[in-house]
Fold this protein.
Amino acid sequence: MAAPVQPERLLRERNEEEAGGAMSFFDHLVELRKRIVSSLAAVGIGMLVGFAIARRFINFITQPMLSALSANHAAPNLYYSNPAGYVSLIITLSVYLGIVLAMPWVLYQVWLFVAPGLYKHERRAVSGFIVSATALFLCGIVFGYYVMLPRVLTYIVGFANEGPIKPLINVNEYFELIVVVLVGLGVIFEMPVVVFILALFNIVTPKFLLKNFRYAILLITVAAAIVTPTPDATTMLVFMAPMVALYFVSVLVAYLVVRRKRKKAREAGGA
């Protein structure tokens, strides 16, 4: 039989937890400035690293387009239409690589800003928050690169490659397209992490998410229509499937958070 929890220890832990969240408005502003500066510095360092590897990375990002061109019997080449086009691509790619490389540190800064408003036991989840958020963002990019882009690009090139009109793809415009798809999917895959934070602050509950499922499906459909550059229903369904799955994962995350908070409340009340 488990030993009873001492009321004094529970009271002491509760006081420690509540003390961690006491910050004035000015302290919050100072903390926000500190986290923003640190995040921007990390992005700057990531950009330098990205610039060093950008030329090698171009072969990787252009592969889906070259494969789509070859599959539709078109010349597997991309072009730039102004003298500074290639340099502009290198710089732009460096910026995005810098953001991706700095993402774990940026997420860590976000958590440090949010953590003072949480209880002590909730702040212990920092490592899980960073790992899960980074993993979900990368999963979104991987899904976009290996699943969405081949299907989307093959459809676009095949649709436009009929008759005497042949594709002459500008590499800068192609890069803008894949950034919308990949980054958009990476952000969308963060849904469970966002719900985790909202559930911690009692903004959403599992009941609320299930009750408003129909509205969530509507928003998912709109997001699919915006991010998916093709009008065919099949591609939109491929895009929507992981989003719906992520929504139900978010419901499970909210349920676990609420259950844990209720358990803590019962333990404190039983003291």
Residues 1-5, 16-21 have pLDDT under 50 and may be disordered. The radius of gyration is 24 Å. Residues 25-187 form one domain.
